[in-house]
Amino acid sequence: MMDSIPSETPPPNLDELAEDHYFKANPPPKDLAKHTKLAREFIDFHAAAGRPLVLVTSGGTTVPLEKQTVRFIDNFSAGTRGATSAEYFLEAGYAVLFLHRQFSLLPFSRHYSHSTDCFLDFLKEGPNGSVVARDDDAAKMLDVLRKYRHARESNRLLVLPFVSISDYLHELRSIAQLMTPLGPRGLLYLAAAVSDFFVPPDRMSEHKIQSTNAVDPIKAATTEEVFDNFDSSPAVPRSKRLVVDLDPVPKFLKNLVEGWSPEGMIVSFKLETDPSILVHKARYSLDRYQHHLVIGNLLSTRKWEVVFVSPGVADRWIRLPAAGKGEADERIDGVIKDEPLDPRTLPEGDPEMEIEGLIIPAVKEMHDKYIEKFVRRQKKE
Ligand code: PMT
To answer: Is 316 in the pocket of ligand 1 (CB under 6 A)?
Structure first.
C-alpha cells in the first residue's frame, strides 16, 4: 500500500467561492463600465495629490422580484446619514465619492429637496424677471451654494447612483478595488442600508408576477411555463397568494476587508430597533469582519445619538446635546457604559446642529491615527 502524499493544494477559500458565484450569477449594472472609468479618474487624481478620499455609501438597496422589475422590496433609508456625512467630510478636507441610491438625498441639494417645503417656496421674483432667494433663506442658501460650487470646481465630489442590491455590490467591489493606490488614505464609510435577502436570478420571474390566473390558459397553449416561485401547497388559491422565497445575500464585508480594500480604513454601520442588542450586534460584526469601526444606531434615535464600537477600546456614545435629557438617555445609560461628549464644548440649543457634525471629526481623528500608524509600520519594515 502506498503512503498518502500530503496535498500541496490549499483548501478552497469559501468567501472567495461565494464571491465568485454571486458575481457570476448576478449581472452587473449597465453603467458599471462608465462608473468605473469616472471613479478611476477621480481616485487617481486625488491619490496623486496625496489627499484622503472617502467612499460614502448611502440609501437603501432594492430587491427586485421580477427581472423586468415592476415590484421590489426596499430597505429603509432616506439617505440623510450619507448625504449629510458627505458634506462634513468635504469640510474636513476629504475628496468624496458618493455612491447612493438613485433619487435618495444628495449632499447640498438635500437642504432643498424631499423637504416639507417645495424648493419653489425658497424663491421669489426678483428685478427684471429674475428669480432670487427669499430674504429669510438667502444667507443659508448662499452658504450652501458656495460650498457646493467649491466641491464641484475643485473636483472633490463624485456622485454615482445604484438601485438594486446587485448593482450596489458590483459597484462597491469595483470602487473598493480602484481605491488601492490611496493605501491607508482611503476610507470606506458604509452607511447604505444593504438588503440581507434577495431573489436569485434563476428563481426570478422574467415578467410581472400575475395576481390572477387569467393568463394561464394562454401560457398552457404556448407550452410556456407558468412562473411559480414557491413549492408549498397553499390553502388559499394560487391566484390570491404571493409567497416570496428569499435567499441570504452573502456577507461581503469580510471580502472587502481582506481582498478588495486591504489597506483602507473601513467603517460600517449597524442599524437595530432593539436598544438591548445594538452594542452586542455591533461588537459581533467587528469581531467577525475584523475591520476598524462599527457605528451603531437605533432607528428611533439615529439623528440624536450613535455609538462607536472599535477594537480594544470602550464603546463611545456620541450624542447631540439636545438628547442629553429624556427617556432615551436614561434607558441607554442604565444598560451600557456610556461616555457622552462634554456638552460644554458644544454650542447649546443650536437647532441647525446635526449629529454628523460630531461623527465626522471623530472618524477623521481615528483615520489620521490609522494613517500615522500605517506609515510608522512601513518605515520599520
Ligand atoms: O439614510 P437615513 O434615513 O439617515 O438612515 C441611515 C441608516 C440608519 C440607514 C444608517 O445610519 C445605517 O445604519 N446604515 C446601515 C444599515 C444596515 O444595512 O445595517 P445592517 O445591519 O443590515 O448591515 C451592517 C453592515 O454590513 C453594513 O455596513 C453593510 O455594508 C454590511 N453588509 C450588509 C449586508 C451584506 N450582505 N453585506 C454586508 O457587507
So the answer is: no
Domain boundaries, the chain: 14-201+247-380
pLDDT score for 229:
54
Tell me the CATH architecture of domain 14-201+247-380.
3-Layer(aba) Sandwich (3.40)
Residue 224 CB neighbours (<10 A): 10
Q: φ, ψ for residue 335 (rounded to 5)?
A: -105, -40
> Mean pLDDT score of the chain, rounded to an integer?
86
The stretch 14-27 carries a mean pLDDT of 89
ipTM of the complex, rounded to two decimals:
0.94
Contact, 25 vs 250, CB < 8 A?
A: no
Q: Are 105 and 78 in contact (CB under 8 A)?
A: yes
Share of the chain above pLDDT 90, in %: 68
Residue 67 pLDDT greater than 90, yes or no:
yes
> What is the pLDDT confidence band of residue 319, given thresholds at 50, 70 and 90?
confident
Contact 87, 354 (CB under 8 A): no
- C-alpha neighbours within 13 Å on the C-beta side of residue 274: 4
* Cα–ligand 1 centroid distance for 132 (angstroms): 39
pLDDT for the residue numbered 347: 41
Q: How many CA atoms lie less than 13 Å away from 113 in the CB half-sphere? A: 12
What's the angle, vertex CA 161, arms to CA 157 and CA 166, rounded to 5? Answer: 135
Q: Which residues neighbour 73 within 8 Å (Cβ) at sequence distance 6 or greater?
A: 62, 63, 65, 195, 197, 244
Between the CA of 227 and the centroid of ligand 1 the distance, in Å, is: 32
Mark residue 103 as left, alpha or beta (left: phi above 0; alpha: psi -120 to 50; beta: remaining).
left
248 CA: nearest ligand 1 atom: 36
What is the CB neighbour count within 10 angstroms for residue 154? 10
Tell me which of 29-43, 152-166, 295-309, 337-351 is least confident.
337-351
Beta-strand (E) ranges in the chain?
53-58, 62-64, 72-74, 95-101, 123-125, 131-133, 157-162, 186-190, 197-198, 247-248, 265-272, 293-298, 305-309, 316-319
Query: Residue 277 and residue 300: Cα distance in Å, rounded?
Result: 14
Q: Residue 129 has which C-alpha cell? A: 424677471
Which atom of ligand 1 is found nearest the CA of 297? Answer: 13
Instruction: Give the pLDDT score at 233.
Output: 55
Pairing state between β 293-298 and 265-272: parallel
Q: What separation in Å is there between the alpha carbon of 78 and the centre of ligand 1?
A: 12
